[in-house]
């Protein structure tokens, strides 16, 4: 695997009133509509916390602060690329009355319980989506202080 096939990504696991925020998007490989957490690549000269807050805002219109992280997930995708994903937890106590995706690639926002997600007709973008929710439901919470700042 070349370095061009290795991707550092972040994801926002947003839980509010026992429901998780998911974005509906089109899978660029299959063309199929899928569900994912707000997520994306870390940009050059961007730290992890800035990246996840940016991705969350771009994909949902929400400006929130993470309270913890769930760890690091890895995926060897069908395109032979490896994705390393850092999952951040957001637990807002309230939400603005209105918010909407800033990114035209996001087709819709969905608030789903774990049960509703399991019964959902739309497929998940990858197993990383359900893995992160499972970790959250297991009570995994790592302190943000474990992520060292860029030096």
From TrEMBL:
Annotated EC: 3.6.1.-
Record protein name field: Phosphatase NudJ
Alphabetically ordered keywords of this record: Hydrolase
Taxonomic superkingdom: Bacteria
PANTHER family noted in UniProt: NUDIX HYDROLASE 23 (PTHR43222), PHOSPHATASE NUDJ (PTHR43222:SF11)
Keyword RNA-binding: no
InterPro entries: NUDIX_hydrolase-like_dom_sf, NUDIX_hydrolase_CS, NUDIX_hydrolase_dom
Pfam families per UniProt: NUDIX
Domain Nudix hydrolase: 5-137
Named cofactor requirement(s): Mg(2+)
Keyword Hydrolase: yes
Coiled-coil residue spans: none
Uppermost EC category: hydrolase
GO molecular function: hydrolase activity
């Amino acid at each position: 695997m070349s370095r061009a096939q290795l991707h550092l990504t972040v994801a926002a696991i947003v839980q509010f009133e026992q429901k998780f925020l998911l974005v509906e998007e089109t899978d660029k490989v299959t063309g199929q509509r899928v569900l994912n957490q707000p997520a994306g690549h870390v940009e050059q000269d961007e730290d992890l916390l800035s990246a996840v807050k940016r991705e969350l805002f771009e994909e949902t219109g929400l400006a929130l602060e993470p309270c913890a992280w769930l760890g690091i997930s890895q995926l060897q995708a069908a395109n032979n690329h490896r994705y390393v994903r850092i999952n951040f937890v957001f637990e807002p106590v309230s939400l603005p009355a209105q918010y909407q995706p800033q990114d035209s690639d996001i087709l819709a926002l969905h608030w789903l319980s774990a049960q509703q997600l399991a019964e959902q007709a739309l497929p998940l973008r990858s197993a990383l989506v359900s893995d992160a929710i499972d970790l959250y439901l297991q009570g995994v919470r790592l302190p943000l202080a474990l992520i060292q700042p860029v030096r």
